[in-house]
């Protein structure tokens, strides 16, 4: 954004009239090669014209993102998706039929219309058809696909409200469109159809088992589990999604056990936030009860991490969630938020 001390404008986009105005303003800026923060159903995105390298460069600069970390390209119809890739195939069609619009990114060989800066210099592109009316309308109005990473400073916690975006990027961009709190709450599943076997690069609410069920009959074997050794998606292994406080996942049977564990870790109770879904301690830290269902937990977790940072917590203790497929993406985010 030009000039100093300017702050992003936040435009509400809830009523049809508000949506009309916000979509028009966002599309105008995007057509002029600017970046705009837009709501999606997963997390807020920092969008730019995916076909304009100078515009895309602004995304990397604004976020402080390494240039080798590819961006997801957002589309609003299947024809647009097909124009972005070299070859559309049966597997992609079936995934699109079942999960789009929705929180699934499909990685395919890129077509020549996608500039190298979008894909981190690579030959493949991640495509997603988001399930939020506002970004769909913006893409339709622009007529071009939007490159959009999560709207946060690189490696920090993603934004699930316009206020979260404002806190991290408010002095770096001109416009944030406020489409309400994100319904899914964690980033899309990234599924790579270019590797053999195809595999999940980043777990999300749509898990491996669902993808497998949809692809069954196509004689496609997908790789089971995250294979950390062969994972080749920059930005997917390192420390990521990090709050300012130190995040630690713990299990406990009773308050005494938790107290001992906190003492051993050197956590000061007055500066400790505890996110749990059962056995809340009564005399330790600032306790927040989290939802017991994975889908609701996912919707809430980033907002709670933002709250802990706002409250000035030095430590965030997260009660380790259950171990089943629907919790896999949450474990993944917590593990990386906890990484040193
Ligand atoms: O839900 C989401 O996916 C959100 C919303 C805004 O759509 N976007 C998002 O973007 O989370 P970002 O850039 O924060 O994360 C995208 C991840 C990165 O870790 C990137 O490395 C990976 O997807 N990725 C993107 N394109 C890829 C490609 N061609 N091959 C492998 N990994 C890719
Ligand atoms: Mg991100």
Can you tell me about this structure?
This protein is α/β, with parallel strands linked by helices. The chain has two domains: 180 residues, DHBP synthase (Alpha-Beta Complex), CATH 3.90.870.10; 93 residues, Rossmann fold (3-Layer(aba) Sandwich). It is 32% helix and 17% strand. The protein contains ten helices and 14 strands. The strands form three sheets. An eight-stranded mixed β-sheet has the order 2-3-7-4-6-5-9-10, with helices on both faces. Strands 11-14-12-13 form a four-stranded parallel β-sheet, with helices on one face. Strands 1-8 form a two-stranded parallel ribbon. α1 crosses α5. The longest helix has 17 residues. The radius of gyration is 20 Å and the shape is globular. It starts with 8 loop residues before the first strand and ends with a helix. The structure holds threonylcarbamoyladenylate (TXA) and magnesium ion.
Counted up, domains total 2
Give the helix level as a range of percent.
25-40%
In the CATH scheme, the class of the largest domain would be Alpha Beta
Task: Indicate the mean pLDDT.
Answer: 93
Name the structural class: alpha/beta
- CATH architectural label of the largest domain: Alpha-Beta Complex
Let me know the number of strands: 14
- H and E order: EHEEHEHHEEHEHEEEHEHEEHEH
Q: Give the CA-based shape.
A: globular
Radius of gyration: 20 Å
Number of contiguous helices: 10
Strand content: 15-25%
* Small molecules bound in the structure, each named once: threonylcarbamoyladenylate, magnesium ion
CATH superfamily of the largest domain, called what? DHBP synthase
Low-confidence stretches: none
């Amino acid at each position: 954004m030009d000039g100093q001390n300017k702050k992003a404008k936040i435009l509400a986009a809830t009523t049809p009239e508000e949506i009309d105005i916000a979509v028009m303003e966002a599309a105008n800026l995007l057509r002029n090669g600017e970046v705009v923060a837009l709501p999606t159903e997963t997390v807020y995105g920092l969008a730019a014209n995916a076909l304009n390298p100078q515009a895309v460069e602004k995304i990397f600069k604004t976020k402080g993102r390494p240039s080798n970390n590819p961006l997801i390209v957002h589309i609003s119809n299947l024809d647009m998706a097909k124009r972005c890739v070299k070859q559309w195939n049966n597997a992609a069609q079936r995934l699109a039929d079942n999960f789009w619009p929705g929180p699934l990114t499909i990685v395919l060989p890129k077509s020549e219309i996608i500039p190298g800066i979008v894909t981190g210099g690579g030959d493949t592109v991640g495509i997603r058809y988001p399930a939020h009316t506002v970004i769909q309308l913006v893409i339709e109005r622009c007529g071009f696909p939007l490159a959009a990473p999560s709207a946060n400073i690189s490696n920090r916690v993603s934004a699930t409200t316009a206020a979260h975006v404002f806190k991290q990027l408010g002095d770096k961009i001109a416009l944030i469109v406020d489409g309400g709190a994100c319904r899914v709450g964690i980033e899309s599943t990234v599924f790579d159809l270019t590797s053999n076997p195809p595999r999940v690069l980043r777990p999300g609410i749509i898990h491996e088992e669902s993808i497998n069920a949809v692809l069954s009959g196509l004689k496609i074997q997908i790789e089971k589990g995250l294979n950390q050794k062969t994972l080749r998606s920059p930005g997917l292994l390192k420390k990521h999604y990090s709050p300012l406080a130190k995040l630690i996942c713990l299990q406990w049977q009773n308050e005494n056990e938790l107290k001992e564990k906190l003492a051993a870790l050197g956590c000061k109770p007055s500066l400790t936030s505890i996110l749990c879904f059962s056995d809340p301690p009564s005399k330790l830290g600032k306790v927040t009860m989290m939802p017991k269902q994975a889908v609701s937990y996912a919707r809430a977790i980033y907002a709670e991490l933002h709250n802990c940072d706002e409250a000035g917590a030095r430590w965030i203790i997260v009660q380790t969630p259950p171990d089943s497929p629907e919790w896999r993406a949450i474990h993944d985010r917590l593990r990386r938020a906890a990484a040193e």
